[in-house]
Amino acid sequence: MATVHRHPAPPRRRAKTAALLGGGLAAGAAGVWLLRTFDPTAPGSPFPPCLFQSVTGWYCPGCGLTRCLHALVHGDLAQALAMNPLALVLLALVPAFVAWRAGWQPRWLRPVAAVLSTATFWVSLLAVYWVARNLPWAPFAWLAPG
Predict the structure, then answer these.
(1) How far is it, in rounded angstroms, from Cα 110 to Cα 106?
(2) Of 19, 46, 15, 18, nearest in space to 33 by CA
(3) What is the number of other CB atoms lying within 10 angstroms of the CB of residue 85?
(4) Most exposed: 63, 67, 83, 85, by fewest CB within 10 Å?
């Protein structure tokens, strides 16, 4: 078996990566602070309502996301799930996506990763979720923000 020698990333690339990571952490911390401080449902909230829902009356795939994250940073998992169940499930998968991109790629997970890496899967998932959460009967009505 041949040994693979990895060369360290050039200093410029490491600096760019560190800057992106630092910026992402700062933005995430600011978002958590905003969500802990302000209630998206309160009058005068700095969070705008869903423009698509305001214009059409239909829920988009992201409707309830801000309220989901607000409930999540306050430790209310049941309320977060009620607001946007797909977003909560996808958020729970973020560590696995990050680990995969960082190099943790077990053989048993490769078929799943192959499906998840296609645009067709994500467009189909969001389209089906979009339609399903606007259907007025159970169990689909449970997908609407509530």
Answers:
(1) 7
(2) 46
(3) 18
(4) 85
